[in-house]
């Protein structure tokens, strides 16, 4: 579904601005977020002149008509999406501060690059290359952090290093990964779930009949994570995102999603076997009050000799150790990776070109 600029009225100037990523109206003020991770308020004059009750009601009804949904006190939540936008509107019956409008841009681009990651202190080069090698070794990733910190963007970045011949199936309720668009020519099936029609559990079960080598679940929210772990335990690789503030809390966070204690007890060991690496992304403020995102923690999950172990390798954005457990080294070696901290080494030969090496070093 596409929505023309006439539907957005005064908001179009922000929708059309490539530097704006989020547009949030809380009933009285309009807040904007840009690609530099800065969040600021639109002028009071703009809100007073343009964000009138009449405009807000008109915009809401336009979106409701587009998706053929009722929007009123009995149907207080309205959602719509286009190829590049996700729109959420909450009625004042439930949003007591006033009718709320949230517009998030989900363009089919990857804003994060290797050069940008290093230049903007997203992570140090050895951490970056280690994680890129984890993709080559077909490890399972969980990206953690608070809402809006950039978990999906980080997943999109590392998904670039999946070989084109390896089939990827993405599962989302709102299309944000855009794997086909950002990885043209690669083998991918994009699945969209819908409550009551095609649930997450349905999609995960269907995946097993579609010959996947990777399953990317947009977000692990509930008991569907059990089916995801079952898929990963069959040898399928994957990526997902999770809301938690410490990578070491990932197992407990997943266990708390289960319906009962019996399921949780059975699943604990499976987590350490199926999940390989967790990455925590945070925001940090600069002296000029702007902020930047960075990889704060990285850990590996291990299960050996019937014991579960968490190997924290990055803490506070800094690499904590130069060596890895033998079981991890063996896994990299099986993938032909001699040095996990150097991307491009394979069977003792460097297969990354000189230009890439220079870019990674800058």
Question: Could you please describe the fold and organization of this structure?
Answer:
- There is one protein chain.
- The protein is built from 13 helices and 17 strands.
- The chain has helices spanning 12-15, 44-50, 53-66, 114-119, 125-136, 151-159, 179-182, 200-207, 224-233, 250-255, 261-274, 326-334, 354-361; strands at 20-25, 30-34, 39-41, 77-81, 85-90, 100-105, 141-144, 168-172, 188-192, 214-217, 237-242, 277-285, 291-304, 307-315, 318-319, 345-346, 349-350.
- The strands form three sheets. The protein has a nine-stranded mixed β-sheet with strand order 9-8-10-11-7-12-13-14-15, sandwiched between helices.
- Strand 2 (30-34) and strand 3 (39-41) form a beta hairpin.
- The longest helix has 14 residues, at 53-66.
- The relative contact order is 0.11.
């Amino acid at each position: 579904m596409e929505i023309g600029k006439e539907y957005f009225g005064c908001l179009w100037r922000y929708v059309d601005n490539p530097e704006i990523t989020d547009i949030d109206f809380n009933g009285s003020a309009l807040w904007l977020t840009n690609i530099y991770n800065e969040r600021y308020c639109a002028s009071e004059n703009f809100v007073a002149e343009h964000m009138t009750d009449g405009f807000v009601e008109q915009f809401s009804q336009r979106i409701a008509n587009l998706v053929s949904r009722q929007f009123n006190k009995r149907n207080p939540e309205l959602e719509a999406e286009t190829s590049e936008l996700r729109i959420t509107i909450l009625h004042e019956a439930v949003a007591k501060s006033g009718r709320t409008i949230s517009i998030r841009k989900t363009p089919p681009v990857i804003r994060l690059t290797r050069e940008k990651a290093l230049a903007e202190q997203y992570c140090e080069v050895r951490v970056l290359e280690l994680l890129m090698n984890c993709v080559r070794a077909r490890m399972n990733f969980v990206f953690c952090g608070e809402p809006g910190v950039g978990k999906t963007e980080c997943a999109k970045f590392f998904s670039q290093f999946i070989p084109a011949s390896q089939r990827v199936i993405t599962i989302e309720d709102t299309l944000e990964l855009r794997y086909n668009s950002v990885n043209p020519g690669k083998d991918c099936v994009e699945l969209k779930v819908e409550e009551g029609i095609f649930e997450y559990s349905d999609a995960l079960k269907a995946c097993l009949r579609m010959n996947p080598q990777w399953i990317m679940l947009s977000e692990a929210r509930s008991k569907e994570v059990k089916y995801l772990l079952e898929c990963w335990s069959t040898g399928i690789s994957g990526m997902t995102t999770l809301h938690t503030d410490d990578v070491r809390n990932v197992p407990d966070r997943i266990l708390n999603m289960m319906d009962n204690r019996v399921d949780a007890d059975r699943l604990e060991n499976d987590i350490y076997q199926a999940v390989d690496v967790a990455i925590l992304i945070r925001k940090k403020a600069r002296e000029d009050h702007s902020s930047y995102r960075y990889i704060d923690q990285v850990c590996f999950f291990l299960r050996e000799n019937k014991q579960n172990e968490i190997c924290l390798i990055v803490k506070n954005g800094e690499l904590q150790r130069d060596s890895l457990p033998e079981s991890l080294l063996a896994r990299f070696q099986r993938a032909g990776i001699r040095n996990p901290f150097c991307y491009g080494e394979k069977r003792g030969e460097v297969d990354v070109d000189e230009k890439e090496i220079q870019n990674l070093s800058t």
